[in-house]
Automatic annotation (TrEMBL):
Protein name in UniProt: Threonine dehydratase, catabolic
Record-stated family: Belongs to the serine/threonine dehydratase family.
Keyword annotations of the record: Lyase, Magnesium, Pyridoxal phosphate
PANTHER family associated with the record: SERINE / THREONINE RACEMASE FAMILY MEMBER, SERINE RACEMASE
Top-rank taxon, per record: Bacteria
All copies of domain Tryptophan synthase beta chain-like PALP, residue ranges: 16-304
Swiss-Prot/TrEMBL cofactor(s): Ca(2+); Mg(2+); Mn(2+); pyridoxal 5'-phosphate
GO biological process, one term: D-serine biosynthetic process
GO molecular function, one term: D-serine ammonia-lyase activity
Pfam families: PALP
Amino acid sequence: MKFPSLEDIRNAHLRIQPFIHRTPILTSTAIDEMAGCRIFFKCENFQKVGAFKARGAANAVAKLTEEQKKNGVATHSSGNHAAALARAASVAGIKSYIVMPSNAPEIKKKAVKGYGGEIIECEPNLQARETTLRAVVDRTGATSIPPYDFYDVIEGQATCALEMWDEHIPFDVIMAPVGGGGLLAGTALTTKYISPSTLVIAGEPAGADDAFRSFHAKKLIPMEGPKTIADGLLTSLGKLNFAIIMQYVDDILTADDTEIIEAMRLVYERMKIVIEPSCAVPLAALLKNKERFRGKKVGIILSGGNVDLGKLPF
């Protein structure tokens, strides 16, 4: 199947307009001075449901047929996609069934319930998530909407970078975090369609570095036993996303948990905004590799702000 085109992405953006915020781009002179470059932060932590995931879920639900809507939607997710899909379903007036690992953050379970999603808990591993989801789909007839490895979702996530390019900033580099790869794949498509010379670079936790390893091995290497504070990036890279990433992403850089926490704290202190650990990964990777970015204009997608304030790592 061919990748979503720029026209597909523009259409997705029009389709989801009523259901999302157009998030602001913020800057920080203090962080620029530390980094040795100009950084433009696209604040998806201010997005509906507190994360970019609202875009992909809204697009996927908006594209359902009337027949599909009757039985609702289902997915497995440990967090932001779960809330995003529950909300998109609620807005569309349809049911949502969300399979969540038993150790998913309480704040994320609360969000799903708040949007009217029915939570089905499972053991905290991918196999249990997939098996439970299959059982739910068999029982309910709901349409499964995967968290990232699905073109309708990728197309929705790609609208974030579209808004960045609408600001007419001549970005040298655009950075996004990578977990399942939906945001990164979408960002890479939009960016390379609009400005082929702009570099697309991902940030990934060193403790969950399957995208980094897969990218360099040029073959998909699933993640086993990921261990990182960036709970939104614990998942393995999706197949559809990997194909897009191999064609359009220029590099993947890693940062360890200490560096991620430091970058997260920096954003709290200097920008006075709430971000979750996964969100701080690209900035952490940039600060670790300052020479590569010196003097450049860098767009960083701050992917989300759903963090349990009672468990801040600093």
